Amino acid sequence: MYMNIEQLAQIANIDFSKFNPNENNVKHSIVIPFVQAFGHKDLDLEHYSQGTRFDIKIGGKILVEIKALKENLDKHVEQVKRYCDDARPLIAILTNGREFRIYSPQWRLPKFETFNDYIIYEFSITDLNDIEFVKKIADILCFFTSDDCEFDEHIQKREKEILKYRREIDSILLNQSQQADVVKDEIAELEIQIEKFQEQIKLKRQAISNLNSINLPEIEEINKTYYLPSKKRPQISSKSLILKPLPTQTAKEEKKSLEREATAKTDNGLKIGNRKDGDLAKGCLLPNGSFRVLKGSLISNSVAPQFQMNAPLAYKLRWTYENDETIVNRKFTKDVDFNSISLAAKVILGGSFDGKQWIPE
Questions:
Q1: If both were cysteines, with which of 54, 63, 101, 280 could 273 make a disulfide (CB 3.0 to 4.6 Å apart)?
Q2: Domains of the chain listed by start with CATH number
Q3: What is the DSSP letter of 28?
Q4: pLDDT-wise least confident of 48-57, 88-97, 344-353
């Protein structure tokens, strides 16, 4: 395998502040030295094929399309696709000198909807300073040192790697989406509670208004009987019924207080289980009102038939934790905090249970 590391390093460190950005300069100062650094000397420049012209063709296997330095490569993807449909190269390179995209037009694995999905490498010119990366693309670019079969194998190997990495990315994105759905459900529950509280506040304020409007004849009778001057009754304001905050602690005092409360709560441990599985999990209430299930706790072997319908939030959490390896082989791999003690019970027992299932250790 031939690679001119020094030449690639020189290309990677070009000073673009003094660089003429037109397409011709990109071709002769960057792209041609780039392909020559992988051993290609016999280049077919300005190659014509079926009425189209692309910039470089190498051995009938590599097609190179070059754009000016400031060009957006996305605008030229369809052009490269058309060239590949006509010339049928094994790989195609689209570059503006600063960014490089290597395509596999004859993708051997399941087909994609857009030509951009056939990118097998996308990198910046500065990545050519990374020798390990250069070795990877050399397997594909140095095809003349291998027979066609081996060259094809390198491309297929890279295609399989890409599919694997895309599956991993999709899994991460799915997990993130599922976690977001859980939070959305929690928000929806909180909004329902807020609506209930707002309705209760509205009713209480109406009650105050009703009290203010009621005449109090007993007061008038007292005034009349004892010849007292009439005294205006103070109005009760609903706005004044807002709880005032307690005097704030200093940050240091608050931290010590929370630490004392946390210690007290943690020492008062709770456990939960069922008849079939016995003791499953241990946990403790936290000062902020949430509930912590301790590392090493187990979830039930089975779940209730209507678990998903009766406790959808707990069902999603349990599924998410098993998929992101928070729970492995039914066991919690770390401490997990729940919004409530009842939610923790639902997740662990796999059904619509309340916090009363937790008992002192």
A1: 280
A2: 5-145 (3.90.1570), 259-360 (no CATH)
A3: I
A4: 48-57
